[in-house]
Amino acid sequence: MRTYAAPVFSRFRQYLGMADTDFQMSLTCESAYLQFISNSKSQADFFLTFDKRFFLKTQRKREIRFLLTNLSKYLDHMERYPHSILVKFLGVYSIIAPQEKKRYFIIMQSVFYPHERITERYDIKGCQVGRWTEPTVDSSEVIVVFKDNDFEDKVISLNEDQTWLLQQVKLDTQFLKALHVIDYSLLVGLQPLHDDDRFLNDTLGNILAKTRLITSYHMDVNSQNSPSSMLEDGSVSCEYPRRRIARATSNSSSSSSTSSDQILRLYPDYLFPYLKPDRSPEQLIRSEGFMHNVVTPFLMQNSCEDMSCVVGSALCSRSLSDLSGASFAAQHRRILPTSKNPLHTIDGPDYRYYVGIIDLFTVYTFRKKVERLWKSIRYRGQQFSTVEPSYYAQRLCQWVESHTI
């Protein structure tokens, strides 16, 4: 067995917040891998780790060469746009089994993780020819991934995140166009939002709002030549902002009181030690120390897994000043949901959507140009997958724009 570009992928995993020990544990646990039956035409073999967190996929030698050749460009794109929805490549390997040829495979982060609550899955290419999936006849546990024609008149409701998704798809497809790549897919998974998802996202939003108050207050203090509130390491001191947070918290009683019932109903065992006979739950929720001493530690427990991908933003930023609008927009970031897979999840009003762009190895070569000519004759007037890179990218962006609100 051989590992390719091991130090590079190790650093990338660390950048994503993945500890090598956790990564190795998923790959080497005693439970067997799960073989994934795919309707892909590539005849590649797919395997899932037992925790369903990582995909292993066999690749042709030329595909591995293409990835390694363009690895620096891929990582540069990921660094420039840390919330990119491109699939996360985590390792490249080859293995020689007795009496068999050398086989290459890659390890990727699963877009559909965690999968337990996902109700529908789609593989979108933005065309119609051959883009439907026959439903399973029996009631087996086979996971069906539908295609473009199966999506029909559904819409992805994102509200304020719609603009972000449209722009990120454009940025990612422009990158793939520069590599002359086609035939990639946009994966879309639908999961109805449950009460615990809504509560944790609302709570994280409150924490981030207060963090912004810290930053804005620090800027106000500096502008008024107040005593310095910068620490030696360049981070912002919370001595002044705490007073402002207290005022902001006292002004948010209506939203806090509406959250108390949810908190007690969803996490009674966790909150019971903090309740006092002389203090109502509403007063507890409104208190300045509740977010800092109770909710934040709760969200951050098991933080290596639950919050690992919030790299360089919000709670995991190197400096609170990273939350400034200009810095945040420069790398096209968004507030990530409290999910185990936040880079590939977007929360709308009613659904959590899993989105990711996969299959990045089909280069628009001379052979593909001939295939495009043949398909244009056979499927005259219809949309098929083999088209030039610029048109492929534009068409997928148009699909996203027409199916999101």
TrEMBL record:
The gene is PIP5KL1. PANTHER family: PHOSPHATIDYLINOSITOL 4-PHOSPHATE 5-KINASE-LIKE PROTEIN 1, PHOSPHATIDYLINOSITOL-4-PHOSPHATE 5-KINASE. Keywords: ATP-binding, Kinase, Nucleotide-binding, Transferase. It comes from the Eukaryota. Pfam families: PIP5K (PF01504). This is Phosphatidylinositol-4-phosphate 5-kinase like 1. One of its GO terms (molecular function) is ATP binding. Transmembrane segments: none annotated. GO terms for cellular component: cell projection; cytosol; plasma membrane. Residues 1-404 form the PIPK domain. One of its GO terms (biological process) is negative regulation of mitochondrial membrane potential. InterPro entries: PInositol-4-P-4/5-kinase_C_sf (IPR027483), PInositol-4-P-4/5-kinase_core (IPR002498), PInositol-4-P-5-kinase_N (IPR027484), PInositol-4/5-P-5/4-kinase (IPR023610).
